[in-house]
């Protein structure tokens, strides 16, 4: 989340929104797991842990659309991330573990795309 604040200071509204939002996502997911998950019924917990990534998939899709004004690499990362959240969310929500596995592989592809830097022009 701190990176998002630095991006805002640098005038990068897109980066500020992305880093702050996804930082908040991870903090909220950790808080749910650490403090609240044990007090929620198992059937409701599975539905909630499915709905939550679906909601973030919608947000990420909006961010993907906004990323068309950035670099192609950023655009690919947001597309893969939206696919990842969609697969993980629907898989968890419906109990189809094949979708969760596919979401995990999509997440790995997202990480690879995010770590790949274009080579400088010669």
Order of helices and strands: HHHHH
Instruction: State the total count of DSSP E strands.
Output: 0
Rounded to an integer, what's the Rg over CA atoms? 16 Å
The residue fraction in helices comes out at: over 70%
Tell me, rounded to a whole number, the average pLDDT.
Answer: 90
Terminal-residue CA separation: 35 Å
Number of helices: 5
> Residue ranges: pLDDT <50 for 5 or more in a row?
none
Quick one: overall form?
globular
Number of domains: 2
The major sheet is characterized as: none
Q: Strand fraction band?
A: under 5%
Structural class: mainly alpha
Protein described:
The chain has helices spanning 2-9, 13-36, 42-66, 72-94, 97-115. The chain is an all-alpha fold and 122 residues long. It has two domains: 1-39; 41-122, no CATH class. The radius of gyration is 16 Å and the shape is globular. The relative contact order is 0.10.
């Amino acid at each position: 989340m701190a990176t998002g604040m630095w991006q805002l200071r640098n005038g990068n509204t897109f980066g500020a929104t992305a880093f702050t939002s996804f930082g908040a996502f991870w903090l909220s997911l950790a808080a749910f797991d650490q403090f609240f998950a044990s007090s929620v019924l198992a059937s409701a917990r599975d539905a909630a842990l499915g709905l939550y990534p679906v909601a973030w998939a919608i947000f990420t899709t909006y961010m993907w659309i906004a990323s068309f004004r950035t670099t192609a690499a950023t655009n690919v990362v947001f597309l893969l991330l939206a696919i990842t959240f969609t697969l993980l969310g629907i898989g968890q929500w419906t109990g189809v573990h094949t979708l969760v596995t596919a979401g995990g592989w999509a997440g790995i592809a997202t990480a690879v795309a995010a770590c790949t830097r274009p080579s400088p022009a010669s």
